[in-house]
Structure formats: C-alpha cells, structure tokens
Amino acid sequence: MLKNLLIKNYALIEHTEIDPDKGLNIITGETGAGKSIMLGALGLLKGGRADSKALFDTDKKCVIEGTFNISSYKLKSTFKDLELDYEKVTILRREITPSGKSRAFINDTPVRLDVMKKISEKLMDIHSQHDTLQLGSNIYQLNLVDAYGQLEKKVEHVFVAYKEYRKTAQSYQQLLDEYNQIKEEFEFNQFQLKELDDADLDDIDQTELEMELEKLENAENIKVALNTVLEALSRSDFSADSSIYSSITDLNGLTDYSKKLSEIRDRLDSCHIELRDIISEIEGEEDALFFDQERIFMIKETLDTVYGLQQKHRVQDLQELIEKRESIRSKVDKVESFDEALLEAETEKKAAYEALMEIAETLSEARKKAIIPLTKELNKTLADLGMPNGLIEIDHRVTEPTVIGIDEVEVLFTANKGRAPQALREVASGGEFSRLMLAIKYILASKTSLPTIIFDEIDTGISGEIAIKVGSIMEEMGKSHQVFTISHLPQIAALGSKHYYVYKDHGGDSTVSKIRTLDQNGRIQEIAQMIGGAQPSEGAIQSAKDLIGIK
C-alpha cells in the first residue's frame, strides 16, 4: 500500500506530498490542471523513461519518492533474488538531474531500472487509456486468462521449455545448413585431399631436395674444383701434404736442441693429421659425386608436384601446404561423421519439443478451465455495470507452440440482445471498453495480492446510472485494495474515502499545479461544481450531499 507520495520539481509541480487512504482515493480537477502528473510520477517509480524536460526548475533535480507498506505481501524472496535488503516499509525513489541523468533507489540503495521495475510491478498496477486499447489484443486477452487462473508459474515453465526447444532447434538447423553447404563441396574436397595425400608430403624435405638438385646439376663443375683442391693438397709434387710431412721430418732432428721447437713440431704434426682427414673427406665427396640424370629427374618431379600444389592452394611453404591438407581432411571427415551428429541433434530437438508440448498442454488445459468461470464472472459484472444484454464469450484455439504456449484466445462481445458476439476490437465502443476493463480489473483484484490499483479516467464514455454502478464497483474494490481513480464524474467522486483536488496556481512568477486534500465541505463544493458548474446552485449542492450520503 502506498503510504506517502512525494513529488518535487516535476512537470508543473514544484513540491507536493500526499498520504493516501488505504481504500478508494479520488482525484478530480479541471481539464489541464495536472491530474495525470501524479500518474507520470508513479510511472517513473515503475521504471518509466526519465527526461530533463520534465523538470519544473531546470536548475534543480527532480525527486519522486513513494513509501510503501509491504509487510502483508510475500516479497521477501523477491528482494532476496534481487540482492536487496527487505524492509517492511520500502521506499522507491527516482531522481532526475538537470543534465538529464536518472538514478533509481530502493531503500536508499542504488539500483538499475529493471530492478526497480521488478519491485514496483509487485506494488502498483497503473491503468491508463492505452491499456483499454490494448484490451483488443489477443496477447493481452491471453494474459488476462493467465492472471485469472493464476497460471504465472505454468507460463514461466513453458517459457523455459520453449527457450530450450528453440536452442536445440537452432543447433540442429545450424548443423543441417553447415552439412548441406559442406556436402556441396565434399567431392571437390575429396579430390583435393587425395591429390595431397598422394604427394606424400610428410616424407619430403623440400629444402634438402632443393639443395641436392642444385648440387647434382652442378656435379661436373664441383668435381673439377675438388680435383683442383686435391691437387694442391696431396696429388702434386709440391702439395701441402708432402710439404708439411717434409717439414715435420726436418724438425724431428732439432727437437733435442730446443723445447720450443719440439712444441712447434707437435703442433705441425696435429695440423698434418687434420689435413689428412680433410683430404680424405674431399676424396670421399669427389668419388661419390657424379652426374645422376635419373636422380635429377626424380627430384625435379617431386619438387614440381610440391610447387604446383603450393601455387594451387596459395601457400608459401611445405608446412602451410600440410596444414591446408589437414584442414581439407577435417572437412571431409566432418561430412563423413555428420550423419551421427545430425541424428543426435535431431534427437535432442525432438526430446525438447516433446518436453515443451507436455508442459504447454498442461498449461492449455488449465487455461481452458479458467476461461469458463472467467466468462461467467465477466458477464455477471457487466450486468452489474448496466449492460444486462451484454455478452462475453472467449474463443480458444490451439496453435503452434510459442514462448507463451500453444493457445490463442479471442474475446468476443456483443452489447445487444439477439446479436452474435464478434471480436471485441471490432464492435465495442469506448464506454463499453472502459466498463469491460473495469470488470476485468474488479475480477482480477480478487485473484491478486497487488496492493495499489490506479485508474486514469476509466469512466470515460459513461454517465448517469451507469456511473453510479461503476463507482460502486470501485468502492467495492477499495475494501480489499488501495485504489486511485482520476474521474470527471460526480457519482464516482462522491464514493471516495479520500478526495484530492488538483488545480493550477497562477499567483507566483510561474504557473504551478497543486494538489490538496478536501475536507467534507470541500468535497461537497467540488462535487457540486462537477454537477452544476463553477457557481453551483442549491440543488447541485444538495445533489452533492445526496451522492456523498450526507443528510
């Protein structure tokens, strides 16, 4: 229940504060006086869009603060889920700075707007003329059935099951699309893979083959050069080998005379040993080297294959070519193993669909059961609201599963006896829409713990005896719920347990909207003016007293 509402620096309101009654609260005033400003302020507490243009004084921040007594409502788990401290008296506050920045608080804790929405929707139901128009929507009508049948948990279970089904369906479709795409390339990939496999790339050292080919193609030149080297080192009369050997022999006769000469002889001996080893290796290379045309052909054939594949697959080296081969192999293997993956994905999709349908059919049966008493109560309430010939029927159809189940409903209506009901949005007038919406709110009020219901001119299009009946319904709702209604009808205004009057004050530098609580005399005067104009007659004043119930 809303205990206190503070509005500062919002729209035409500089500062106002009200302490509503727990029953039926009436808000009246001339057109344009600012009656809907309170709804706008409460809309901000419900997470509505904030705009710096709404500031009364653009140099100061706007503050909207609602204090709610929630001690009798089971909201502890909601606060816990949202990681908020639970307080029996909870304060919701919105602030808008001159720069347009908006901040939201719950019990002085900063929160995101979506968090404020989740809390405020448990505390207030604001009905506007837009909601009346929504009544023609099939989705809105289905939501009414769910609210009446208290099926929110079942709807949530369908929502979760549908999300899981859509997830598996999308995975299956994605896999199928991928399979079809890869399958088109399968034969080409198979051909490419065979070509790469036949090349035996893992057994090839491209760098080594390129060096060997260059060596074989220059074998004669290399052989000539090696023979020249061997001639200088060992094959001529004055070769390095014989010269060093002769020098060692000469030094052998001098080692007894000098230790230093002995060391030099030893070093020269080591050089001779190293030289003989070098000569031996050069001779081995020279003996092994010959022009092998067949080997040259084989190497060229292998390298031509590698070069061709590298060019074909646009890679720079053998390693990249091997990586390309493995990538193609993966695609081929994937197609070959797709049947199993597709079957598994299709099985998961089918299981998720069956689980969804089981839950959706349970919800559908519950909806069908709820439609029967809902229809009866609506027709009875419409009769109470002055529509004895009005008839409501709710048509139910089974559809393909969606996020809200497998049901679609259509509210059918006729206001005239003997006429078949038709789609509500096609036949109902504005006044009939308003009364039907009031009937719905009245019936749902008994099904919900929602503490505060707010009506914005739901009495549009009605008058006279019908207005009295509408007022009686609101008065009845006020016995179990806190109700606010903005009204232009004296029959309804007279039934309030608390009456607020909204007016414009032109006394200052700027026009401001103000709201004041009317005492008994104030109520009589305001209702009399609603009946007879700015200067009500004695008859109008007496009528006001009669409506209020003052003798």
Automatic annotation (TrEMBL):
GO terms for molecular function: ATP binding. SUPFAM superfamilies: P-loop containing nucleoside triphosphate hydrolases. It holds the Pfam family SMC_N. InterPro entries: DNA_recomb/repair_RecN (IPR004604), P-loop_NTPase (IPR027417), RecF/RecN/SMC_N (IPR003395). CDD domains: ABC_RecN (cd03241). The keyword DNA damage applies. GO terms for biological process: DNA recombination; DNA repair; SOS response. May be involved in recombinational repair of damaged DNA. This is DNA repair protein RecN. It comes from Flammeovirga pacifica. The lineage of its organism: Bacteria, Pseudomonadati, Bacteroidota, Cytophagia, Cytophagales.
